[in-house]
Amino acid sequence: MNFPSTLIEDAVNELSKFPGIGKKSALRMVLYLLKQEENSVTKMGESIIKLRKEIQFCKRCHNVSDLELCNICGNSKRDQQLICVVEDLRDVMAIENTGQFNGTYHILGGLINPIQGIGPEQLKIDSLISRVQEVEAREIIMALSATMEGDTTVFYLSRKLQNSPVKISTISRGIAIGGELEYADEITLGRSIVGRIPYSN
Fold this sequence. Notes:
Elements: H1 6-15, H2 23-35, H3 38-54, E1 56-57, E2 64-65, E3 82-86, H4 89-96, E4 104-107, H5 126-134, E5 139-142, H6 148-160, E6 167-170, H7 186-194, E7 197-198
Parallel strand pairs: 3-4, 3-5, 5-6
Antiparallel strand pairs: 1-2, 6-7
């Protein structure tokens, strides 16, 4: 792809680093930005820089937050003894959009995947084990994608928690095997949370 300006080329190369954005889509975005008022583009750039510099992570669940505790962990109306274990922020947002869950979350930051070099030590597992003991958790819902990596992670966590009196359940398989949680529709995901089932090895 030939560019009339190195400035455009640099911008296209940076934007095409986003997931799902190819060079053509990035070029359309750059051309759109060129048509906007300078103040509007500056504000957009500043918001991205501010996001990266100032965003915090909840010290309890690892959710993104503006404060030490996210608005879910800091909400006294949420059931602190009911913890839903998820892979990342997108899963929290997907479950929250169902309006069916009133507990809290724990974001692992990924799934166990030896092929990609991701082991338990790279995930937020130790903080989950400590948290279960601290809050005397009543139930842990394993809301991980129905993939080999998701099932491996659930198995590992269940072994780590086997000496704890906490109940371990998984979301019911209204989520398709091999499906990613973030792509499930809200009704199916909501029913999976409500109809969760006990986890057994």
